[in-house]
Structure formats: structure tokens, C-alpha cells
Amino acid sequence: MRSPQTQPTRRQRGFTLIEMLLVLGIIAFIATLVSTSVLSGNRKARQSEAIAGVRLVASAVERYELDCGVLPGKIEDLRQAPAGLTGWSGPYLNASQTRDPWGTPYLLAIPGSDGRIYSVRSLGADRAAGGQGDAADLDSND
Predict the structure, then answer these.
(1) Ordered strands of the 107-109 beta sheet
(2) Of the candidates 93, 94, 89, 100, which has an alpha carbon nearest to the alpha carbon of residue 128?
(3) Which pTM was predicted?
(4) Which of 77, 82, 85, 97 is in the most buried spot, having the most CB atoms within 10 Å?
(5) What pLDDT, on the 0 to 100 scale, is given for residue 33?
(6) Where are the domains of the chain?
């Protein structure tokens, strides 16, 4: 007669391979969902930051024009006074405010888009003109 101790019970045997694979699959699925959500949120945050940056630079351009009576020739004129200019009371921006979240300098276009006097642009995540989604250009006149 066998003793009850020689026959392992279900609890003593542990997990089967199928159970382990099922748990690993569920963990991988959840990790994929979380990482996709985090990356999507990061893209949206950078785009929102770029929109705010375009507006900030456009506001600095307007303050410059009010002080000096002319538009700046380039973004750097908002940080350092151009030679021979009167009325400059800047700096209107610091160095970090002249670059978008992707590290590309904001662009100042005179004349601007849509027949406006000027426009400030960010090239977006692709750092090139054009694009769609988070790679789309952002314009102060949009």
C-alpha cells in the first residue's frame, strides 16, 4: 500500500508550462498597452509645448516691435540688441525659449503666412517643412 506522501498533490507540483505562458502573455499585453499610452502622451505634450513656444515667441516679437518700431530681422534679435537700434529693452527671450521641444530653432518669417506681417513657426518633430501629426509644422497664424 502506498503512503499518501509518495503521491504529489496538485498543489505540490507547481504551475504547468501553459499556465506560465498564459501569465507571461498577459503581462506582455499589459506592458504594450502602458508603453503605447506613455509614448502617445509624450508626443502630445511636446506638441502642446511647441504651440505654447510659438505663441511666446510671437508675443516677444510684438513687444520688440512696440519698443523699437520695427520687426526683428531674426529670432536672435530678441535675445541681443542689434547694432544701431534704439528703444530695445530686452532681452525678450532667453536662449532656451528660442528652440522648440525637438531642439530646432523657431523660424521668423517676414512677411508671414496668410498675408500677415510676420509669422513664427516650428518645424515639428520631423524638423523639416511639411509633415502630418506630431511632425506637422506649427504656425503662429494658425
Answers:
(1) 107-109, 119-122, 138-139
(2) 100
(3) 0.68
(4) 77
(5) 85
(6) 21-139
Residue pLDDT, tens place only, 66-115? 888 888 988 888 888 888 888 888 789 988 888 988 888 998 888 877 77
Q: Which fold has domain 21-139?
A: Glycoprotein, Type 4 Pilin (3.30.700)
How far apart are alpha carbons 108 and 104 in whole angstroms?
13
C-alpha R_g of the chain: 29
Contacts of 20 (CB under 8 A, 6+ apart): none
Cβ-contact 125, 135 below 8 angstroms: yes
The one-letter amino acid at 4: P
For 112, the grid coordinates are 508671414
Among 128, 82, 92, 122, smallest CA distance to 105 is for 122
Q: Which amino acid is at 55?
A: R
How far out from the chain centre does Cα 129 lie? 16
